[in-house]
Amino acid sequence: MLQNTDYRLGCEIGLYGIYAELPAFEIVNLAHDLVSAFTAKVVTLKYASGSSVYTNDTRWSIIDNMKTEFNRRVNQLNADPVEAAKLAEEIQAFVETVLDPLIAAHTLGANW
To answer: CA–CA separation, 63 vs 68, rounded Å?
Structure first.
């Protein structure tokens, strides 16, 4: 076992749902993974060929700001699994309600 690694299950620290049976360190890792994936998606959209269809959308500034905010927050987690779970949920909700609809609105009918 690694020192300072939190092996408590989510249910032991008051978390439920998908986090209940995950060790605390995996919950923190999940938040880091989600921020990395979100950032990669945003950066890809920003610099890809034809990116202006995304970056000129009124939602883009919110998306770009949230990229910065999510990265700031993940860097301040201090291995706190409860805060990591909150951040993970927020990222997933933001992707589902803002980012994915933006992508869908500009790629319908596109041949990928």
So the answer is: 9
> CA 51, 57, 62, 66: dihedral to nearest 10 degrees?
-20
* Phi and psi at residue 22, to the nearest 5°: -90, 140
Distances (CA, A) of 98 to 29, 50, 62: 23, 19, 9
Model pLDDT for residues 35-86, shown as the tens digit of each residue: 999 999 999 999 988 888 999 999 999 999 999 999 999 999 999 999 999 9
